[in-house]
Write a structure and sequence with these properties.
The protein is α/β, with parallel strands linked by helices and 177 residues long. The protein has a single domain, classed as Rossmann fold (3-Layer(aba) Sandwich), CATH 3.40.50.300. 55% of the residues lie in helices and 11% in strands. It is built from eight helices and five strands. The protein has a five-stranded parallel beta sheet with strand order 2-3-1-4-5, with helices on both faces. The relative contact order is 0.22.
């Protein structure tokens, strides 16, 4: 199998960066975040890209960053919460799962995500009424996360260590890690 050892998907504040970093350290693999890739490529933050150029522009950049990372990266890959809204990205993730790749949906409830996200300025889609936006996002995107995920790991009300342990358990049987 080529591509990342693990791809993490999920809504904002589901724990993709926290869990991904811990899993990468535990497995001795590099960690990569497609939001950081877009920022490095453009020299601008995700929040600034949303404000200055709009969501469609950011999503186009994100789609390219995900496609590139799925080809180049061999470690743990975290995708932005909205990456699954791209049909092309979903196709790539489903294909990655079909060839033995692991795509884990870190599933979180509204209350936990709202607590974790707070009023963070670096989450542009949550800038106004974060709880309502999170609820809408979770409802709209749940079928998309389900479509691409090979595993679902709930994160609500759980310590990061518990989630990391469950994700590692999902990877352990693969043998080629």
């Amino acid at each position: 199998m080529t591509g990342p050892a693990l791809v993490l998907v999920g809504p904002p504040a589901s724990g993709k960066t926290t869990v991904g970093t811990a899993v990468s350290e535990a497995c001795g693999l590099p960690f990569r975040d497609t939001d950081r890739d877009v920022e490095a490529e453009t020299g601008s933050t995700v929040a600034d890209l949303f404000v200055q150029h709009g969501e469609p522009h950011f999503r186009a950049l994100e789609e390219k960053a995900v496609a590139r990372a799925l080809t180049e990266h061999r470690g743990v890959l975290a995708l932005g919460g909205g990456a699954v809204t791209s049909a092309a990205t979903r196709e790539l993730l489903v294909a990655h799962g079909r060839v033995g790749g692991t795509v884990v949906w870190l599933d979180v409830d509204v209350a936990s995500a709202a607590r974790r996200a707070g009023l963070s300025r670096d989450r542009p889609l949550l800038a106004v009424n974060p709880r309502a936006m999170l609820r809408t996002m979770l409802e709209e995107r749940a079928p998309l996360y389900t479509e691409v995920a090979t595993q679902r790991v709930p994160t609500a009300g759980r310590a990061p260590e518990e989630v990391v342990a469950e994700v590692l358990a999902v990877l352990t049987p693969r043998g080629d890690r």
